[in-house]
Amino acid sequence: MVEEFNGENATPRKDSPNETTNPTRPIDIQLKVKGMRTLYNSFRDYVTVKMLCGEHGYQTGEFGLQDARAAVIFQSLPPVLHLQLKRYEYDVQHDIMVKVRITSSTGYWFGFNLTPKINDRFEFPFEIDLGEFVDETADRTGSWKYQLHSVFVHSGGIHGGHNYAFIKPDRDTRWLIFDDNRVTPASEREVLGGNYGGEPPSGVIPKTQRDQAMVMKRSRNANVLVYIRETAMDEILAPFTEKDTPLHLGEITLGWRPICDSFFF
User: Fold this and answer.
1) In the chain, N or C: fewer CB atoms in 10 Å?
2) Is residue 244 in some structural domain?
3) In Å, what is the CA distance from 240 to each residue of 176, 183, 229, 246, 256?
4) Do residues 200 and 112 make contact, with C-beta atoms less than 8 angstroms apart?
5) 61-116 confidence digits (pLDDT tens)
6) Residue 85 belongs to domain spanning
7) If we measure between CA atoms, which residue out of 177, 172, 171 comes closest to residue 222?
8) Cα dihedral 30/230/151/224 (nearest 10)
9) pLDDT at residue 139, as a whole number
């Protein structure tokens, strides 16, 4: 089974007479973090052909489980790309959702309010070229380069923590950090390296306040990335005008009032 992504929907393509066709469904790009190290590696893993065999075969209804190949083919990509980084997974052995894994001599260790979360180091760039992941038949008149626009960050564990975002509103404005009701400038170093994540050295169990601070700092990492296609940036990030403001927000923030209180017929 091969899923073909056209930027809006995905439809399984029939590679076998024994395969049924599923209804179309929206794209949801969720990329692996664990063991990937970089965004490019994660994309390569996403499009890699995977074999479905034996008890893990493809269910074909009356024909039962069949050996099959499963893969994703991008026929096109949307102008705005939302990437969810999979920093949570289900740990069958411990029957828990996992967000952090610390290896020690005894295996897993969760302590002093350390909640499970995958804090592996995962690097992402300001610019990414996805041309190698788009099908050969795709439109090549424009590049498939994307510019980083937003980084959504979670600091903490699976049961709690703090969320905030780094956003670059347009080509010229510097990066800003949106943290609750505070909006302040941010450096490029904060946007990238500060949100890659990464675990403490293997076997380290935090005992002092310094050790605890180190572990908690490593639990701060990006979990959603927003990229905008380079050729669509001027359209997507066009200057905001008064007419773009919804009426109810204008009344609250700008003191607007409706021209009339009723309609006349």
Assistant:
1) C
2) no
3) 17, 18, 19, 12, 17
4) no
5) 888 888 888 888 888 889 999 999 988 766 656 655 555 443 333 333 333 334 45
6) 2-238
7) 177
8) -10
9) 84
C-alpha span between 33 and 35 (Å, rounded)? 6
Which residues are 4's β-sheet partners?
A: 11, 73
SS3 170: coil
The count of other CB atoms within 10 Å of the CB of residue 196 is 18
Position 264 pLDDT exceeds 90: no
**φ and ψ at 54, to 5 degrees?**
60, -130
Tokens of 171: 């080509």
Whether residue 161 lies inside any domain: the answer is yes
- Report how many domains make up the chain: 1
Per-residue model confidence as pLDDT tens digits over 152-192? 998 877 677 889 999 999 988 999 999 999 999 999 999 99
Q: How many Å apart are CA 29 and CA 8, to the nearest integer?
A: 11
Q: For 244-261, what is each residue's pLDDT tens digit?
A: 877 777 666 656 555 444
Q: Is residue 246 part of a domain?
A: no
CATH number of the domain within which 69 lies: 3.90.70.10
Residue pair 247/258 in contact (Cβ under 8 Å)? The answer is: yes
Contacts 24+ apart (CB under 8 A), 96-99: 97/158, 98/158, 99/157, 99/158
The C-alpha atoms of residue 97 and residue 242 are separated, in whole angstroms, by 45
Tokens of 200: 């403490």
Higher local confidence (pLDDT), 34 or 248? 34
Average pLDDT for residues 36-59, to the nearest whole number?
Answer: 89
